[in-house]
Amino acid sequence: MGKKLLIQFMIVWGVCMSAYAREQQDSDTSTVVKMNRLYDRVVNGDMDLDTPNLESLREPEIICLVNRVLALKEPKLDVMGRATWVLYNIRSERVRECYVMWALAEKLDRGDNTFIEHIFTDMDLCSVSEKLTNRARELVALYEPLQPGKDAPDFELESSDGKTVRLHDLQGKPLYIEVWKLDSANCWKDLARLEELKSEHKNVQFVTVVVEPLGKKEAWKQFLRDNGHEGKGIHLFADENAAFREAYRIKSIPRCILFDAKGKFLIPWSVSPGNEYFPYFLSMLKQQQGNKMK
Questions:
Q1: How far is CA 102 from CA 50, 64, 132, 188, in A?
Q2: 3-state SS of the chain: helix, strand, coil percent to 5?
Q3: Whole-angstrom Cα distance, residue 272 to residue 87?
Q4: What is the predicted pLDDT for the residue at 36?
Q5: pLDDT at 31
Q6: How far is CA 209 from its chain centroid?
Q7: Mean pLDDT of 268-293
Q8: Distance of CA 22 to the CA centre of its chain
Q9: Are 155 and 167 in contact (CB under 8 A)?
Q10: Which of 207, 211, 199 shows the shortest CA–CA distance to 237?
Q11: pLDDT digits (tens, 9 = 90+) for 53-75
Q12: Beta-ladder partners of 157
């Protein structure tokens, strides 16, 4: 391709991309406006939430609208309570599927599976589509291995000193892992607190796993150096696209995990070191070990 033709191509490509971006922005704006208008009509009593107009919205707007309306009309309902409400009160299969799948993921991503049988019972009673039931069961199955007492998935991650570390290498002591990101100020505080915990609880191994793109590996190492963490304890790097993130269902940060000395899950979704209930979680280790932690 000649230089002149290449320049012309780049100009045309730039114009097309700009037009596409404007079109997307206009589309985003129009759907948000539509959602706000629907919200006003439902709240004012001019329209029921069970309206075909919801199907004209994109999934994020459907979820947002349902949450906004139910937060006002049914403030005592939690996420799964709202999902049940949607099953019994909205006929649109698209809206049902969109909201129920979102609600399931919200609860599962926080380690809460106590509602599962109830929601499937409600699905049966409400005669939802087979597609929704199958999708829900597939989602729940992804979290099935992450239960207390089950063997945790093994992993291979690079440490800050360039070594490869596996979960198997960390067995022998109860293990606490905090998964974090470089841009989280709360995680910075947790790392400082973990340094204190290492001296307070010598029979527990405290490990951090940062989840970042590969291009940020050097920035991570520099952060550890600048903040006095280098050479202190085990700090691991997980590429954000690595199998570790998928196997452990890392959806929100920070994510804290407590293992027993044999690499089994003790608490797959633990609290962070700064949480007021954190000492209670450590006390569970005392009970499991049957001796006093030092």
A1: 18, 11, 12, 30
A2: 55, 15, 30
A3: 34
A4: 79
A5: 64
A6: 15
A7: 73
A8: 31
A9: yes
A10: 211
A11: 888 888 988 998 899 899 988 99
A12: 165
Q: What is the token pair recorded at 105?
A: 């993921």
Q: In which element (H, E) is residue 259 found?
A: strand 255-259
| pLDDT at 292 (0 to 100) | 43
166 forms beta bridges with 156
- Which amino acid is residue 164, in one-letter code? T
Q: Which residue has the tokens 């009160």?
A: 89
Tokens of residue 108, six digits: 């599962």
Burial class (CB in 10 A: 0-12, 13-18, 19+), 74: exposed
Inter-residue contact 236 to 159 (CB < 8 Å): yes
Total count of residues recorded for the chain:
294
pLDDT tens for each residue of 103-120:
999 989 888 877 778 889
Buried b or exposed e, range 210-238, using 16+ CB within 10 angstroms:
bbbeeebeeebbebbeeeebeeebbbbbb
Contact call for residues 126 and 88 (beta carbons, < 8 A): yes
Region class of 234: left (phi > 0), else alpha (psi between -120 and 50), else beta: beta
Over residues 113-156, the pLDDT tens digits come to 777 788 899 999 987 788 999 999 999 999 999 989 999 999 99
Is 50 exceeded by the pLDDT of residue 20? no
DSSP string, 12-36: HHHHHHHHHHHHHHHHHHHHHHHHH
Band the pLDDT of 269: cuts 50, 70, 90: very high
Could you count the other beta carbons within 10 Å of the beta carbon of residue 103?
A: 24
Amino acid at 87: L
Residue 184: helix, strand or coil by DSSP? coil
Alpha-carbon dihedral 90, 94, 95, 96, rounded to 10 degrees: 60
The pair of three-digit structure tokens given for residue 171, joined into one six-digit string: 């067995």
